[in-house]
Amino acid sequence: MKPFAKATLALSLTTVLLTTGCGGVNPTEVVAPKAQAAADQQQAPEKINQAPIPMKMDRKGTDVFIEMTAQITNIQIDKNVTYNAWTFNGEAPGPLVVVNEGDTIHFNLKNMDPAVPHSMDFHAVHAAPSKKFIDVMPNEEGNFTYKASNPGVFMYHCGTKPVLAHIANGMHGVIIVKPKNGYPTDKQVDKEYVIIQNEWYREKDLDDMTNGQPSQVVFSTKALKEGMPNTNGDTFTLKEKPLLAKVGDTVRIYVNNVGPNRVSSFHVVGTVLDTVYLDGNPQNVLHGMQTVMLPASGGAVVEFKVVEAGDYTIVTHQFNDVQKGAAAVLRVTEDGLDHGGKTMSH
Ligand SMILES: [Cu+2]
Predict the structure, then answer these.
(1) Which of 101, 173, 253, 332 could join 94 in a cystine, given CB atoms 3.0 to 4.6 angstroms apart?
(2) Counting Cβ atoms within 10 Å, is residue 178 exposed (0-12), middle (13-18) or buried (19+)?
(3) How far is ligand 1, taken at its centre, from the CA of residue 33, in Å?
């Protein structure tokens, strides 16, 4: 125990003894739980669990004001596994950020972590990292301004050393910069979703992270509009609660692989990706792809038509990662509604 913790514990014991001494209650019964709680807090600040705080976003013309928190929050990643994660706003992946090409982002990072510095690296901007992606100290705030001048589906992440640990502990997410003139296929799209792939390692195990041995590889979805599903990266939610589409729909998925280490071979079983915009840039257009390679941090916009009712599994075609959880289900029905029933997934 650190000297400071010892002093605090001694002080709180004395206070409790003094205030309860003449009340007729055996002081030891009263003192033990309070003193223990104080001691626990001093000894293990990494085990705190901060309730998610929603991201704030305001717009004035092309100026967008975004406030995010760095915070420690428990995230369920598998049926029986909860991870005491380092997060943005209590979500992992963090909240979806959507801005327009040409916007100026005024970003405020509030670091609620009492012990560890954190930072923000937006892949969507041109900025000097040594000025704009710098550490924000515990219980402090940092303000940064940059322009979102490139359209696409970009990763964001904490860039504090060791970056591997900060990303693997949950500090990653996606920022979509909508192209000024849209995508040429905008009018054909009926349904839109976001899917993010990330890895989880044994909790805070830097060896597993360094050796690239994830315990789970997972998919999540983030809401593009209110009412849409918004999940953390886990092994089961998107298999049990499928995304939905209607027969004949053209479905668009904004996808990103935030890693930190694995490459994603993004594939939708039972269809061909009719149109793909690599990294989500309308100029990087490809057609008729079976699988899109997403490097760590890489994104894409993929579009495909679903012609038959049924369950379509979305995977990374690196099936050892599917074995570790990386799959989601798109359920296609005649009316686009879910009529229940167990999903068929890989
Ligand atoms: Cu961090």
Answers:
(1) 173
(2) middle
(3) 32
* Interval between CA 259 and ligand 1 midpoint (Å): 15
Pair of tokens at residue 10: 């001694």
Q: How far is the CA of 161 from the centre of ligand 1 (A)?
A: 8
291 by Cβ neighbours in 10 Å (0-12 / 13-18 / 19+) ranks as middle
Dihedral angle, C-alpha 218, 219, 221, 222, nearest 10 °: 50
CA of 61 to the centre of ligand 1 (A): 31
CA–CA–CA angle 188, 190, 66 (5° rounding): 105
- DSSP assignment, residue 300? E
Q: Please provide residue 37's backbone torsions phi and psi, each rounded to the nearest 5 degrees.
A: -60, -45
Give pLDDT tens digits for 24-67: 333 333 334 444 444 444 555 558 999 999 999 999 999 999 99
Q: Tokens at residue 50, please?
A: 């901060």
Q: What percent of the chain has pLDDT over 90?
A: 84
| CATH number belonging to the domain at 186-333, selected among 3.40.50.1980, 2.60.40.420, 2.40.160.210, 3.40.640.10 | 2.60.40.420
Contact 89, 52 (CB under 8 A): yes
What are 164-189's pLDDT values in tens digits?
999 999 999 999 999 999 999 999 99
CA 71 / ligand 1 centre spacing (Å): 9
Residues with CB under 5 A from ligand 1 (ion): 118, 158, 160, 166, 171
Measured in Å, residue 116 CA sits from the centre of ligand 1 at 7
Rg (CA), the chain: 23
Rounded to whole angstroms, what are the CA distances from 151 to 148, 281, 291? 8, 6, 22
The domain locations on the chain are 3-37, 56-178, 186-333
**pLDDT per residue as tens digits for the range 250-289:** 999 999 999 999 999 999 999 999 999 999 999 999 999 9
56-178 belongs to which homologous superfamily? Cupredoxins -  blue copper proteins (2.60.40.420)
